[in-house]
Amino acid sequence: MQFSGIGAEKITERKTVLAQDISNIQRKLELLSKELRENENLLQALIGASQQCDHFLKEIHNEESDVENNSEED
């Protein structure tokens, strides 16, 4: 039987191509999801490192203030 001049064989071939395309896109999405998770973890690590730097800078500032205050008292 033909549908609009297209035979069953042609439709089956097209369906095979579509199935391959679907499979390829699913694999790409899985890889992108993995990359997204990895990048989110990296972002969290970088934010943590930045916060740690802020903490160290605050400690250094506090120590410098203590040294200046002790020098003024002498």
Structure characteristics:
74 residues, mainly alpha, 5% strand, rod-shaped
Description:
- The protein has one domain.
- It is 89% helix and 5% strand.
- It contains one helix and two strands, in the order ββα.
- It has one helix at 8-73; strands at residues 2-3, 6-7.
- β1 (2-3) and β2 (6-7) form a beta hairpin.
- The longest helix has 66 residues, at 8-73.
- It is rod-shaped, with a radius of gyration of 31 Å.
Question: Taking strands numbered 1, 2, ... along the chain, how are they ordered across the largest sheet?
Answer: 1-2
Weakly predicted, low-confidence segments? none
Give the H and E element order.
EEH
Cα end-to-end separation: 105 Å
Percentage of residues in strands: 5-15%
Helix content: over 70%
What is the rounded Rg? 31 Å
Net shape? rod-shaped
Domain count: the total is 1
The chain-level mean pLDDT equals 91
Helix count, DSSP H or I runs of 4 or more residues: 1
The tally of beta strands, per DSSP, is 2
Largest sheet entry: 2 strands, antiparallel
Q: In terms of structural class, how would the helical and strand content be classed?
A: mainly alpha
